[in-house]
Amino acid sequence: MPFIGKQGTNSNSKITKYVTTVGVAGEDEFSVSVNTGSDEVQVFLNGVLLKETTDYTLSDTLVTLGSNAVENDIVEIHVYRSFILADAVKASGDTMTGELEVPTVKLSSNIIKASDGGSTITLDTSDNVTIAGDLKVGAVKASDGTAGISIADSTGRITVTETNPSITLGSNATLPDGTMCGFTETTTTPTGSQGTDTDYTTLTGSSVDYTPVSGSSFVVYSYQFGFTGLDNNPLLYWGSYYDGGIIANMESGFYFAYGDGNAGSGYMQITFTLPSWSGSKNLHIEYRVNSSSSEARLHQSVYPSDNYIKIFRTTYSVM
User: Fold this and answer.
1) Are 40 and 9 in contact (CB under 8 A)?
2) DSSP readout, 244-280?
3) Closest by alpha carbon to 78, among 106, 113, 109, 52?
4) Model confidence at 7, in pLDDT bands (50, 70, 90)?
5) Which pLDDT band, with edges at 50, 70 and 90, does 10 fall under?
6) CATH assignment of 182-318?
7) Where in the chain are the domains?
8) Is 5 left (phi over 0), alpha (psi -120 to 50) or beta?
9) Cβ proximity of 216 and 318 under 8 Å
């Protein structure tokens, strides 16, 4: 039957039709099954679309006409019922169970909410992530699915299982007291010896510009070099320098009564510890001989052969 009036507008629906031909006594009530919260209803009298409230009223079970339909009138009621396709998710207000795997998720509000509606995870436009509560993880996995970092439940101990791990700690990381960090090491192969200067001179390979790790308590400096006599009884003086000035109570002398200019003591080491500082400061060692008759060979050996000896310098911070 053709109908006069607007047809249903709910495209995501199925239609249930109720058609009644009115008998002799006339009727004004017609039974239906309607979900008034989501279904759309149209009522036709002899093909003419009636207007709700003006021409009829509607409940979940009944359509009531404002005026009785008479004998042979045809009342047709169309109920457009909302339905959901299998495995489809509503645009809003829906719940999904199971895992969701997608290549990219773009959040319009930059917020991931907990089940109680709280803003648990927030992402800003600079790709920073803010987590409102604690972050609890059992393992951090690599792209191939293997557990590269595992975290113990009770002790909090972190175990790295990767073959070639690389871990970078940010500036806000807190390390336990006594932790050695900011380690630098330089090995120098000298091309000449020292040990004859009568004025204070920087020892080869001893100079370093060092910036301590932020939050550290101490800086440890160590310098190791070879020492062999040149004169029979060499006498040398040492001074340790910080930021251009000699460190108080760090001047010392070294005297060897060899009686043989080729005698030697092998490696010597100068180590000192300073309170930490901010920014880059220079550390180095200077020396001089007492006189031209008390000279030595530094960085050079005589036995088993006349060659130059490697110099080792290390610097590190202690939290």
Assistant:
1) yes
2) TEEPTT--EEEE---SSTT-EEEEEEEEEEEE--SS-
3) 52
4) very low
5) very low
6) 2.60.120.760
7) 13-82, 182-318
8) left
9) yes
Q: Are 58 and 15 in contact (CB under 8 A)?
A: no
Q: Which two tokens stand for residue 144?
A: 């191939």
Greater confidence (156 vs 266) lies with 266
List the beta bridge partners of residue 81: 14
Residue 299 DSSP label: S
By CB atoms closer than 10 A (0-12, 13-18, 19+), residue 103 is exposed
Pick the closest to residue 32 from 68, 2, 64 (CA basis).
64
Q: How far apart are CA 51 and CA 166, in angstroms?
A: 73
- Cis link prior to 234 (omega < 30° from 0)? no
Is 262 or 59 the better-scoring residue by pLDDT?
59
Tokens representing 304 are: 């088993």
Q: Does residue 299 contact residue 307 with C-beta atoms inside 8 Å?
A: no
* Tokens standing for residue 93: 């207000």
* Rounded distance between C-alpha atoms, residue 68 and residue 30, angstroms: 11
The type of residue at 45 is L
pTM: 0.52
Distance, in Å, from the CA atom of 89 to the CA atom of 164, rounded to the nearest integer, reads: 43
